Amino acid sequence: MKRRWDSNEEQYFGIGIYQPKTKENIGSLWRTALVYGASFIFIIDAKYTKQSTDVFKTWSKIPLFQYKTIDAFMQTVPYSCKLVGIEMEERSIPIKHYQHPERAIYLLGSEHNGLPIKLQTICHDLIKLPGEQSLNVAVAGSIVLYDRIIKKIEL
Ligand SMILES: C[S@@+](CC[C@H](N)C(=O)[O-])C[C@H]1O[C@@H](n2cnc3c(N)ncnc32)[C@H](O)[C@@H]1O
User: Fold this and answer.
1) Most CB within 10 Å of its CB: which of 8, 32, 63, 132?
2) What stretch of H or E contains 23?
3) Does ligand 1 have an atom closer than 6 angstroms to the CB of 132?
4) Cβ of 109 less than 6 Å from ligand 1
5) Which atom of ligand 1 is nearest to the CA of 112?
6) Handedness of CA 69, 13, 85, 142 (dihedral sign)
7) pLDDT tens by residue, 15-65
């Protein structure tokens, strides 16, 4: 049967941080996620309260989900959606060679300890950005989202 929708309609993405330490990083990533078309963002094992500096009222446009544990997060991963870990690991794929999945959830690690092994092992792919030293977590997430939109979507 002929599909009655465009293949562009079969894609979505969300992005989140494990144990983020600062509300500023969550806010920065949230804003990029909104501007670049994410469907949701999330945090695992952390709390976030609304910031008065959020002039976009980001909370009113895309949801922020808050999971208490990694297990609680894992139970919500949708059907046919790939988990993509963003981490500076030897086995990570350099982003310039990476073809983003149609449906993806991107996972970032904490400012202090990075992405824990438990999360790395459930990821379908691990990707990394160029550089010898690690980037700020919100910057790293923002670059990955930019890479996704320039590779997949006509602006
Ligand atoms: C500040 S870094 C964590 C640094 C931590 N002290 C460590 O050594 O693992 C926070 C997160 O940003 C992301 N990140 C930063 N630079 C990156 C890079 N070059 N490639 C991939 N992810 C990066 C990762 O998700 C990382 O877990």
Assistant:
1) 32
2) helix 23-35
3) no
4) yes
5) 6
6) negative
7) 999 999 999 999 999 999 999 999 999 999 998 887 777 777 888 899 999
